[in-house]
UniProtKB/TrEMBL annotation:
The keyword Nucleus does not apply. It comes from Hymenobacter ginkgonis. Coiled coil: none annotated. One of its GO terms (molecular function) is acyltransferase activity, transferring groups other than amino-acyl groups. The keyword Methyltransferase does not apply. This is GNAT family N-acetyltransferase.
């Protein structure tokens, strides 16, 4: 079974569930309680919109347990003395890897949490998660040409730019080695 929580130094990265996505979409007043975290005022961030939420929910519903961990992941900043546990971003994969082991990674941070290295940490956690599955051999990510911050996040996580895709976005790739028996769930 794929681990559904990944820990990084400042983040708990939690796989989306049908219950969480249903609350986020249809009963947002319950979402922070179910998630156990404060929600940023500008939620949802970036390209993570109602269409993305609905897609993830549909995929988790159709795929059952085998779909868990292959769609949305919530990035929760761990509580500190000054800050409660807070939802800072989302990320994940566009689905399970194909037969060759290729999976596409996406992520987005709430505006108030950008510029603090949390995007880099979120992507690192997702790369760690992909490696832990033993199924992913190559990760792909896309950014807009003018989004230098997103490009830096990917470069800091070992991705290399391989040119433009058919939508004139930059395509980044990174090989993934299966993880040795590591403890993702501290």
């Amino acid at each position: 079974m794929i681990p559904l929580i990944t820990q990084t130094p400042r983040l708990t990265i939690l796989a989306a569930s049908r219950a969480l996505l249903t609350a986020e979409l249809h009963k947002p007043q319950y979402f922070p309680t179910l998630l156990g975290a404060a929600i940023p005022t500008d939620w949802p961030p970036g390209n993570y919109d109602l269409t993305a939420m609905q897609y993830d929910l549909e995929q988790l519903t159709a795929g059952g347990r085998t779909a868990a961990g292959w769609y949305g992941w919530y990035a929760l900043r761990k509580a500190t003395d000054d800050t409660p546990r807070t939802l800072v971003g989302v990320g994940g994969f566009q689905g399970p890897p194909d037969a060759a082991g290729l999976a596409e990674l996406t992520y987005s941070l709430a505006a108030e949490w950008r510029g603090q290295g949390l995007g880099t940490e979120l992507v690192a956690g997702l790369v760690q998660q992909a490696a832990a599955t033993g199924m992913v051999r190559l990760l792909v990510a896309h950014t807009e040409v003018d989004n230098l911050a997103a490009q830096q996040v990917l470069l800091h996580n070992g991705f290399a730019s391989v040119g433009l895709d058919i939508n004139s976005r930059l395509r980044f790739e990174r090989a993934v080695e299966p993880a040795a028996d590591t403890a993702l769930n501290d």
